[in-house]
Write a structure and sequence with these properties.
- Helices cover 43% and strands 23% of the residues.
- The radius of gyration is 21 Å and the shape is globular.
- Strands 9-10-8-7-6-5-4-1-11 form a nine-stranded mixed sheet, sandwiched between helices. The protein has a three-stranded antiparallel sheet with strand order 12-13-14, with no helix packed on it.
- The protein folds into two domains: 253 residues, TIM Barrel, CATH 3.20.20.70; 54 residues, no CATH class.
- It contains 15 helices and 17 strands.
- With 380 residues, the protein is α/β, with parallel strands linked by helices.
- The structure holds iron/sulfur cluster.
């Protein structure tokens, strides 16, 4: 994958509070550990820079979590400075930081903007007080407004908001109200995810005890269809199943991920996909720090994918993009004939009007978009 850009993902695993639905690798803040965590990131960066920096240009950096803004501004500045020192980063690189309302003030936002972070993704989830409480979020609507306004004041002109739909008891008009309030903040990008109950979360226990009832599939689909209608009418480009952007404002980093090209993940629990090999770091921040100090890496699991598996995953991720998969590019990447391997599956899905092939692109049809999970599984 010589010609593909390399994306750099850095995981900051700390949160001020564990949300009830969360199955991300997030842990309580430990102030006495966080400097050591940043030190460990520096060491891990040095290790991988020796392997990858000479021939790889980095076009995107993404600090995700957890809540990256639980780190102090000086720690976030230090991380970015070290990235520039260790890797070959394009001058126009997209450098995103995730932030949660109530975890960042104006001074901190100004400092990180000045340090070079040029895109901010804010975890809003809902503008509704009751929904935020139900979602077990640590902030209310007031903090959302102040965080978005401060981010603008600090100079972030590329701003994304995350919203969550299919929250229990959410009516269509509740959801429309959320979307309208989000649009009032003039974001360049919106991610809208439906709430799913993941095993091992507090929500999974509530559901098992009959204390949490999720909306039925029909209502979820109604909310999703309305999302597409409302946001596209307001000029947003629906470019991925759950993502919408103003022109030229798609998340370049996430596109790297959906194209299943090289991404190097640093930090506790971070996953990487490099040249057909997938590897993942240990989850616990303290274990991560110890592994890095001892041997400069913290990989707990590594797997080189068989070609058929890599192709299946590339289709699975690529079909999430509304543009679809470029068949010609795919054939060159895997040195195969697309028709020979996937011809039968595609014919069946075409007969069912779930996918289309136009020019060089295989993509989900409108009907296929609403049944995306089951269509995508056909290729695995
Ligand atoms: S803020 Fe995000 S990462 Fe942290 S606990 Fe909540 S959902 Fe999980």
């Amino acid at each position: 994958m010589k010609n593909y850009p390399l994306g750099l993902y850095i995981h900051i695993p700390y949160c001020i509070h564990k949300c009830g639905y969360c199955d991300f690798n997030s842990h309580p803040i430990k102030y006495d550990e966080m400097d050591k965590y940043v030190d460990a990131l520096m060491l891990e960066m040095s290790h991988y820079a020796k392997i990858y920096s000479s021939n790889k240009i980095i076009r995107t950096i993404f600090l995700g979590g957890g809540t990256p803004t639980t780190l102090a501004a000086y720690q976030l500045e230090r991380i970015l400075k070290e990235c520039h020192k260790k890797f070959n980063i394009e001058s126009s690189a997209e450098i995103t930081i995730e932030a949660n309302p109530a975890t960042i003030d104006l001074e901190q936002l100004k400092s990180i903007r000045q340090a070079g972070y040029n895109r901010i993704s804010i975890g809003v989830q809902s503008f509704d007080k009751k929904e935020l409480k139900l979602l077990d979020r640590a902030h209310g609507p007031t903090e959302i407004h102040s965080t978005v306004d401060r981010a603008r004041e600090a100079g972030f002109d590329n701003l994304s908001l995350d919203l969550m739909f299919a929250v229990p008891n959410q009516s269509l008009s509740n959801w429309e109200n959320n979307l309208r309030q989000a649009l009032d903040k003039n974001p360049e990008h919106l991610s809208t995810y439906n709430l799913t109950i993941e095993q091992g979360t507090a929500f999974a226990k509530l559901q098992a005890n009959g204390k949490l009832t999720m909306p039925d599939d029909e209502h979820q689909l109604e909310l999703y269809k309305r999302t597409i209608e409302l946001l596209t009418n307001k000029g947003f480009h629906h470019y991925e199943i759950s993502n919408f952007a103003r022109p030229e404002k798609q998340s370049k980093h996430n596109i790297t991920y959906w194209k299943n090209t090289n991404t190097l993940g640093l930090g506790a629990g971070a996953s990487s996909y490099m040249n057909g090999t997938r590897f993942k770091n240990v989850n616990l921040p303290a274990h991560y720090i110890r592994h890095i100090i001892d041997k400069q890496t913290a990989v707990e699991h590594s797997e080189t994918l068989e070609p058929r598996q890599a192709m299946g995953e590339t289709i699975m991720l690529g079909l999430r993009l509304l543009k679809g998969i470029n068949i010609d590019e795919f054939e060159k990447r895997f040195h195969i004939s697309f028709k020979n391997i996937f011809g039968n599956i595609i014919s069946t899905l075409k007969e069912q009007e779930l996918v289309t092939v136009e020019g060089d692109y295989l993509r989900l049809s409108k009907k296929g978009l609403f049944l995306a999970d089951s269509v995508i599984l056909e290729f695995i």
